[in-house]
């Protein structure tokens, strides 16, 4: 929020993002070295992903495809079911076809949930999409939603 | 002198052809209508037109306005007043006679037979009235009698005017070698200076001669005298040979001497010369009268593009042409006559620059190009490609209270579009038209159109321009902010 007026739009949006690295969802998850070796040879696999009004205790709340601008914040939750090694994922937020924010998220093996959020204002109303990519820029999934009145 | 040099330096072959063609038309007009009133009236109108030009150049407002109005109505005046003469020329001439033949000085009318018959009837005191038409049409002057269509012979003429014949009191109209009509009634002259021995026949003969170029032969029943009426005059004829001479003159078969032939050649030569001068004057007046500069904003037509390519962008869609010519020519220009066409047949994908040359510009004759702005145009071309793009719903408005738009599904979820390759590379989504969510109380479906810029994109064959949006509404478990 600080000094956002002197920065380009992309940066202004980026600075209002908050990123929370959730602890690994380990309950019931195998973590042996054999699995780890297998996981390391595999690619990053995206499990659940959604856009929601909030993330509470590591879980998405009120998933939807249209969000009122009065909510002030929209969240993108992603759960990577397979993380072979520590790496990064990106949440790229587009309003129409214009990139508004790109958030780098660290993901840890063997499984990792994380989210990013964006603050929305009147000027941000319209159709949005979020491209979830891996380190190499491969698009793992595209989520679409609208910001409305 | 300078302007004359300039004229010969700049004249084109089209101008020469134009002048020659129109001079010929004027000359033919003279040939066809000489001897009639049409030519005299046309000459009068030409004088009025000249006065009008003079009045305009001198700044005489009322005179120029009046003469302009008269010349504007001239075509109508000529056609209405001289319809009979025009019809006469068109009816009596074939296309060859109208276009290039000089009028032949011959007639098929058996003049000797008519002359002999007139004097034969005179000797027997049989009254007769024979009309030999000239160039003018008598359709509306002569009151029609009976159609006859008989080949002329002395016996037939005498029998027509025989006192016991029911049509003997009317006039017989001759055309070629036939008597076309008999029992015709002619208009009577109202002159008061006619001799007392002239009866109704003489008045009728003179009446027609006054109103047309016809020659009328009158045979007096009382005196047995033969007379001819022509050009408002009535002349007593003493013998058949004099009558023959008058009839031949009327038919254009004068016994011409060498000097007559020479005079005719001089007349025709003068007519050719004056026609050329007249046309040249009009041509100068129209094309070189007042040199004016005018600017025209003209759309650029990009032609011969490779069908596999698309125009992505151009630096200019119109160019401003500065044209020079006479005011009348520039005022008469219509948009279809001025065109700027850029040939894209050698264009390559990417940016192409074209200088607009004289060959790219079409102008009407007599108009000169002075300047083109901008002098060059840039054209960006790209190859045409097709791409499948996902469709996204564009929701707007405010959802009803305590409702969540939980899910949406579009059918079809994507469409294939065709457009410039570079443009498609930057495009990742096709959006629907705006969908108001204000009435989304419960789940449902809605049919909406797609927002596609038709100038840049088209839907590939088999794709609909609408999608069905299925939406799922859920109730909030706790009130929203």
- Major beta-sheet overview of chain A: 5 strands, antiparallel
CATH topology of chain A: Immunoglobulin-like
Number of helices of chain B: 14
Total tally of structural domains of chain B: 4
The average pLDDT value of chain B, as a whole number, equals: 84
Report strand order across the widest sheet of chain B. Answer: 2-4-3-1-5-6-7
Detail the poorly predicted runs of chain B. Answer: none
> What can be said about the biggest beta sheet of chain B?
7 strands, mixed
CATH class of chain A: Mainly Beta
Number of strands of chain A: 10
In whole angstroms, how far apart are the ends of chain A?
A: 23 Å
- Rg of chain A, Å, rounded: 16 Å
Describe the protein's topology.
The complex is a heterodimer of chains A (149) and B (481).
Chain A (H helix, E strand, L loop, with lengths): L8 H7 L3 E3 L11 H9 L3 E12 L2 E5 L2 E3 L4 E10 L4 E9 L2 E10 L4 E8 L6 E9 L4 E10 L1
Parallel strand pairs in A: 4-10
Antiparallel strand pairs in A: 1-8, 2-3, 2-5, 5-8, 6-7, 6-9, 9-10
Chain B lengths: L1 H9 L2 H21 L3 H22 L2 H12 L1 H8 L1 H10 L2 H5 L11 H13 L4 E5 L13 E6 L2 H8 L9 E5 L2 E7 L15 H12 L3 E5 L6 E5 L2 E5 L2 H11 L7 H31 L2 E13 L5 E6 L3 E9 H5 L7 E5 L6 E6 L5 E2 L5 E6 L2 E21 L6 E9 L2 E7 H6 L3 E7 L7 E6 L7 E3 L6 E10 L6
Parallel strand pairs in B: 1-3, 8-11, 15-18
Antiparallel strand pairs in B: 1-5, 2-4, 3-4, 5-6, 6-7, 8-10, 9-15, 10-14, 11-13, 12-15, 15-17, 16-21, 17-20, 19-21
Explained architecture:
The complex is a heterodimer of chains A (149) and B (481). With 149 residues, chain A is mainly beta. Helix content of chain A is 11%, strand content 53%. In chain A, the strands form two sheets. Chain A has a five-stranded antiparallel sheet with strand order 1-8-5-2-3, with no helix packed on it. In chain A, β9 (126-134) and β10 (139-148) form a beta hairpin. The longest helix of chain A is centred in the N-terminal third of the chain and has 9 residues, at 33-41. Residues 1-41 of chain A have low confidence and may be disordered. With 481 residues, chain B is an alpha+beta fold. Chain B is 36% helix and 31% strand. In chain B, the strands form four sheets. In chain B, strands 2-4-3-1-5-6-7 form a seven-stranded mixed sheet. In chain B, strands 9, 12, 15, 17, 18 and 20 form a six-stranded mixed sheet that branches. Chain B has a five-stranded mixed sheet with strand order 13-11-8-10-14. The longest helix of chain B is centred in the middle third of the chain and has 31 residues, at 258-288. The model of chain B has no long low-confidence stretch (mean pLDDT 84). Classes of the chains: A mainly beta (149), B alpha+beta (481). At the A-B interface, β9 and β10 of A face β15 and β16 of B.
């Amino acid at each position: 929020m600080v000094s956002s007026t002197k920065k380009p739009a992309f940066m202004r949006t980026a600075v209002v993002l908050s990123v929370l690295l959730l602890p690994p969802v380990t309950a019931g998850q195998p973590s042996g070295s054999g699995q780890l070796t297998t996981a390391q040879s595999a690619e990053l696999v995206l499990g659940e992903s959604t856009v929601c009004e909030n993330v509470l205790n590591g879980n998405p709340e009120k998933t939807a495809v249209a969000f009122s601008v009065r909510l002030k914040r929209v969240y993108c939750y992603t759960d990577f079911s397979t993380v072979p090694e520590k790496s990064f994922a990106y949440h790229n937020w587009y309003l129409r076809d214009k990139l508004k924010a790109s958030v780098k998220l660290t993901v840890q093996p063997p499984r990792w949930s994380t989210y990013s959020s964006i603050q929305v204002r009147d000027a941000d109303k319209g159709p949005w999409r979020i491209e979830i990519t891996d380190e190499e820029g491969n698009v793992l999934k595209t989520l679409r939603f609208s910001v409305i009145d | 002198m300078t302007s004359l040099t300039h004229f010969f330096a700049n004249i084109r072959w089209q101008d020469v052809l134009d002048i020659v063609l129109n001079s010929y038309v004027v000359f033919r007009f003279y040939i066809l209508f000489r001897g009639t009133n049409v030519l005299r009236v046309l000459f009068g109108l030409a004088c009025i037109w000249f006065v009008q030009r003079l009045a305009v150049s001198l700044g005489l407002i009322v005179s120029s306005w009046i003469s302009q109005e008269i010349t504007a109505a001239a075509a109508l005046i000529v056609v209405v007043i001289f319809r009979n003469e025009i019809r006469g020329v068109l009816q009596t001439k074939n296309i060859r006679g109208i276009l290039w033949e000089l009028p032949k000085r011959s007639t098929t009318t058996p003049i000797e037979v008519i002359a002999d018959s007139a004097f034969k009837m005179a000797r027997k005191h049989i009254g007769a009235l024979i009309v030999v038409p000239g160039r003018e049409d008598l359709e509306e002057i002569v009151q029609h009698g009976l159609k006859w269509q008989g080949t002329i012979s002395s016996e037939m003429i005498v029998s027509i005017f025989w006192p016991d014949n029911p049509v003997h009191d009317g006039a017989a109209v001759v055309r070629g070698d036939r008597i076309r009509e008999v029992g015709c009634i002619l208009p009577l002259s109202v002159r008061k200076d006619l001799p007392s021995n002239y009866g109704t026949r003489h008045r009728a003969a003179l009446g027609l001669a006054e109103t047309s170029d016809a020659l009328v032969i009158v045979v007096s029943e009382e005196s047995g005298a033969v007379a001819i009426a022509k050009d408002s005059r009535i002349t007593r004829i003493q013998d058949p040979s004099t009558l023959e001479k008058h009839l031949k003159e009327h038919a254009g078969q004068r016994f011409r001497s060498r000097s007559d032939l020479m005079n005719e050649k001089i007349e025709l030569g003068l007519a050719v010369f004056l026609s050329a001068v007249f046309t040249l004057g009009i041509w100068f007046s129209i094309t070189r009268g007042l040199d004016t500069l005018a600017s025209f904003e003209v759309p650029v037509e990009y032609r011969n593009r490779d069908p596999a390519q698309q125009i992505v962008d151009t630096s200019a869609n119109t160019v401003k042409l500065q044209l020079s010519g006479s005011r009348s020519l520039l005022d008469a220009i219509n948009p279809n006559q001025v065109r700027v066409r850029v040939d894209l047949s050698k264009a390559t994908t990417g940016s192409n620059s074209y200088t607009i040359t004289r060959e790219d510009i079409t102008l009407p004759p007599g108009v000169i190009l002075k300047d083109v702005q901008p002098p060059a145009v840039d054209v960006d071309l790209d190859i045409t490609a097709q791409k499948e793009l996902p469709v996204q719903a564009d929701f707007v408005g405010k959802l009803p209270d305590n409702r969540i738009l939980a899910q949406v599904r579009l059918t079809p979820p994507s469409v294939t579009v065709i457009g410039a390759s570079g443009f498609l590379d930057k495009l990742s989504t096709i959006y629907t038209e705006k969908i108001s969510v204000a009435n989304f109380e419960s789940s449902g479906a809605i049919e909406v159109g797609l927002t596609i810029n038709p100038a840049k994109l088209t839907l590939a064959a088999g794709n609909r321009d609408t999608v069905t949006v299925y939406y799922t509404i859920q109730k909030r478990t706790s009130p929203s902010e």
